[in-house]
Write a structure and sequence with these properties.
By secondary structure, the chain is mainly alpha-helical. Helix content is about 60%, strand content about 0%. It has one domain. It contains 3 helices and no strands. Helix 1 packs antiparallel against helix 2. The longest helix has 14 residues. The radius of gyration is 14 Å and the shape is globular. The termini are far apart.
Amino acid sequence: MKLYNAQPNKPLPADVEHITASEYLAACARAASNGVEKPALRHIHEELKRLPKTRQRLAFEMLQLA
């Protein structure tokens, strides 16, 4: 019998503190196109809440990308 509620075995990002803006945007795009990636993005958001310097660095990196 197939389990439809089974969670995938995808590891969560370990080093959110050193994530780049392009990696963050890629994670957002993957989560938007594939629901399996949403827990990883949620984990990144939770980690970024406690890392204000990383959020600030990401904001400046995103400005350069824009």
